[in-house]
């Protein structure tokens, strides 16, 4: 009888140990290093699930759910890391593919900076305004809401946009160069105004501090503040 009780006790202890290990593994799956993110179905860092063998998934049956909580630790800026977490090249890839789905649009070049999306496309559309509106809205549906989107069907500007591919946010005079190409793109149709408070490019009414706004975003990207 004593032997049976000892064996039963050992089995119970093993079961408790296994449960504890499973709980620890579950915690690792649910929480990231900062402890700010929980209930994440897919922890991979890529923007919009990417299958290494097939590229961007054409069909996804999984819902996406993430819960973020502000850290209770004083001076913990981990929750602001999202400013630096955007993969701009993947955003450009997604936007370009979406834009080629717009009727009469092909050969799309897309540049994503820290605040702007510049799109040059070829089209044989008879309604340039409507096509510009659709292309712009494709981009707006992908990027964070602070972004401004500029489009053009003037293919003479394609090389100008491509020249930015080797630059980054810290490149010398990059802001003034972007402002210059944007002014030229604005000569093309930009589509409808986004809403009563924003123009066709997603700029707020009376927005006069565009450069200051860009510098602020870049500073947050660097520091996470």
Quick take:
The chain is of the alpha+beta class. It has helices at 2-30, 88-99, 128-140, 158-162, 174-185, 210-223; strands spanning 37-38, 50-51, 55-56, 67-68, 105-112, 116-123, 148-152.
Strand and helix layout:
Blueprint (H helix, E strand, L loop, with lengths): L1 H29 L6 E2 L11 E2 L3 E2 L10 E2 L19 H12 L5 E8 L3 E8 L4 H13 L7 E5 L5 H5 L11 H12 L24 H14 L2
Parallel strand pairs: 6-7
Antiparallel strand pairs: 1-4, 2-3, 5-6
Helix pairs in contact: 2-3
Gap between N and C termini: 66 Å
Q: Biggest β-sheet, characterized? A: 3 strands, mixed
- Kindly estimate the percentage of residues that lie in beta strands according to DSSP: 5-15%
Radius of gyration: 24 Å
Q: What is the name of the CATH topology of the largest domain?
A: GMP Synthetase, Chain A, domain 3
- Give the C-level CATH assignment of the largest domain: Alpha Beta
* Estimated helix fraction: 25-40%
Tally of individual domains: 3
Low-confidence stretches: 24-45, 208-225
User: How many alpha or pi helices?
Assistant: 6
Query: In which order are the strands of the major sheet placed?
Result: 5-6-7
The count of β-strands is: 7
Named at the architecture level, the CATH assignment of the largest domain is: 2-Layer Sandwich
Q: Structural class from helices and strands? A: alpha+beta
């Amino acid at each position: 009888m004593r032997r049976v009780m000892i064996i039963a006790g050992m089995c119970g202890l093993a079961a408790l140990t296994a449960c504890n290990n499973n709980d620890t593994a579950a915690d690792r799956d649910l929480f990231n290093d900062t402890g700010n993110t929980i209930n994440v179905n897919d922890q991979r860092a890529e923007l919009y699930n990417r299958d290494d063998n097939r590229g961007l998934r054409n069909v996804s049956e999984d819902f996406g759910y993430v819960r973020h909580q502000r850290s209770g630790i004083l001076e913990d800026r981990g929750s602001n890391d999202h400013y630096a977490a955007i993969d701009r090249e993947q955003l450009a890839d997604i936007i370009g593919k979406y834009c080629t789905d717009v009727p009469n649009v092909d050969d799309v070049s897309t540049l994503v900076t820290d605040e702007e999306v510049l799109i040059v496309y070829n089209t044989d559309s008879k309604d340039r305004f409507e096509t510009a509106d659709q292309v712009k809205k494709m981009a707006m549906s992908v990027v964070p809401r602070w972004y401004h989107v500029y489009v053009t069907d003037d293919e003479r500007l394609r090389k100008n946009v491509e020249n930015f591919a080797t630059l980054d946010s810290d490149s010398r005079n990059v802001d003034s160069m972007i402002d210059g190409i944007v002014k030229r793109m604005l000569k093309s149709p930009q589509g409808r105004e986004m809403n009563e408070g924003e123009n066709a490019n997603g700029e707020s009414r009376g927005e006069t501090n565009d450069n200051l706004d860009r510098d602020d975003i870049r500073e947050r990207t660097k520091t996470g503040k």
